[in-house]
Amino acid sequence: MAERRVETAIVGGGCFWCTEAAFDELYGVESVESGYAGGARPNPTYEQVCSGTTGHAEVVRVTFDPSKISYRDILEVFFTIHDPTTLNRQGADVGTQYRSVIFYMDDTQKITAETVMNEVAASGVWTGALATELSPAPDFFPAEAYHDEYYRRNSNQSYCQVVIAPKLAKLRKNHYARLAVNQASVPRTEETPVLPYQTDERNPLDHGGIAD
């Protein structure tokens, strides 16, 4: 029996509570782990990363089945769940730890990321230039346990209601065919297209309700 293959993607798009909650919803995603990457200090704490002095970004490590969802799919979703044009910032969250970043695992991922980034830039969805960093994957340090599945465990909190829930609603609208909950009954067809770069408004991530 052939061994089943899984792949890994590491991306950062602001608060990892938001990105974790979004990727958790996708068909083919097997696990999403919040953590820190891209800094100089080994095994940083949340407080150290939030100080902005370690150089780390808040990221998620997504483990996925490439027979069900591709790395390109992951990135297409990534570019619709955060604002990739704001340098070191997502809404009211400011600092290098909130930067938009893709950490590629190999040259194939790098080429795919470059292609998707060029397509996003050319699409006109975002009015500004992309500020997304593209770098080789560094060491990944898992975040503290209390960050795991934060939205699922705290969905009634105000931050989750005001910030994360609207992002998930947009994800469910724009990536309906990619949702795990729909795959059994709704195959991807011309009638249920994936709209990779569509947003509900020109710049929806301004902390007016849909933000990190």
Brief synopsis:
This protein has 212 residues and is of the alpha+beta class. The protein contains six helices and eight strands; from the N terminus they run βαβαβαβββαββαα. The protein has one domain (7-182): 2-Layer Sandwich (Peptide Methionine Sulfoxide Reductase, Chain A).
Describe this structure as you would to a colleague.
This protein is of the alpha+beta class. It has one domain (7-182): Peptide Methionine Sulfoxide Reductase, Chain A, CATH 3.30.1060.10. 28% of the residues lie in helices and 19% in strands. The chain is built from six helices and eight strands. The protein has helices spanning 16-23, 46-50, 71-78, 107-123, 150-153, 158-174; strands at residues 7-13, 29-37, 57-64, 89-90, 93-94, 100-104, 133-136, 140-142. It has a six-stranded mixed β-sheet with strand order 7-6-1-3-2-8, covered by helices on one side. Helix 1 (16-23) packs across helix 6 and helix 3 runs parallel beside helix 4 (107-123). The longest helix is centred in the middle third of the chain and has 17 residues, at 107-123. The chain is globular, with a radius of gyration of 16 Å. Mean pLDDT is 86; it is low at 185-212.
